[in-house]
Amino acid sequence: MRALIFGWTGETGKELVKQIKGSNLFAGATLAGRRNKDGLDEFFKQEVVDFDNLDPKIFENHEHVFCLLGTTRGKAGKEGFIKVDKDYCENIAKLSKDANASHFHLLTSQGSNANSFFLYPQVKGQVENFCQGLEFPKLTIYQPGLLMCNREESRTGEAIFRTIMKPFNSMLGGSSGSISTELLAAGMLKCVEIGKTGKVANKDLFQLGTEFKSNESK
Predict the structure, then answer these.
(1) Catalytic annotation, pick one of 88, 97, 124, 190
(2) Among 45, 144, 167, 178, which residue is least crowded by beta carbons within 10 Å?
(3) How many CB atoms lie within 10 A of CB 33?
(4) What are phi and psi of 30, to 5 degrees?
């Protein structure tokens, strides 16, 4: 199988790229982004894309498509946030369906709700509903809580909360509402391995990721 990954330069995407080659689940992976990066071997093929005008040919011959795109309202403004987190993601899903992808993987968030009064969970919920309406053979929606990682992009409030929550994260087994990007990526690969579909909550991602990492280390 081959995987196509959008949003691979984000924190979760970088972890997925780090783990996917050693997983032996895929013969190779295509990384789609605005620019190429150095330091990747022949397992990975890089595609420079224009998200406003995606070429449908990029989607061909990829059984699994991962949509990990995401920004914030603070960084991109309201319109920019909707464009990336809704419009781009929905277009990626549609083109994946048109190319007969057998398994679509969507990263959203804990608390997503299309009927929410708040923009962030509302948009995440709307994209989930859109993807469900496409009726993929397999659709997995990942709903992590607060991501425990050192972001290249500074978010002061998140950084403070991550520091507070770090001692409790492993102890509470994912029920703290937070998860490391390492375990999140591992949880995604475990879902690939066992063919898990539907919505996967933070606690389940923690458990699946832990199981995947444990098996990989044997």
Answers:
(1) 124
(2) 167
(3) 19
(4) -105, 130
* pLDDT tens for each residue of 80-120: 999 999 999 999 999 999 999 999 999 999 999 999 999 99
The string of pLDDT tens digits covering residues 22-52 is 899 999 999 999 999 998 999 999 999 999 9
Token duo for residue 53: 């005008």
Q: What is the pLDDT of residue 189?
A: 98
Look up residue 205 and give its two tokens. Answer: 């991602």
This prediction has a pTM of 0.88
Measuring CA to CA, how many Å separate 132 from each of 23, 89, 105, 139?
A: 27, 13, 11, 7
Residue 120 is among the residues annotated as catalytic for this protein = yes
Q: What span, in angstroms and rounded, lies between the C-alpha atoms of 161 and 169?
A: 12
**Which residue in 14, 83, 86, 120 is the catalytic one?**
120
Taking CA atoms, 21 is separated from 27, 36, 58, in Å, by 8, 18, 20
- Judged by DSSP in three states, 128 sits in helix
DSSP-derived pairing of the beta strands 138-143 and 198-201? parallel
Question: What is the C-alpha to C-alpha distance for residues 185 and 147, in angstroms, rounded to an integer?
Answer: 11
138 as an active site residue: the answer is no
Q: Identify the CA nearest to 19 among candidates 190, 144, 203.
A: 190
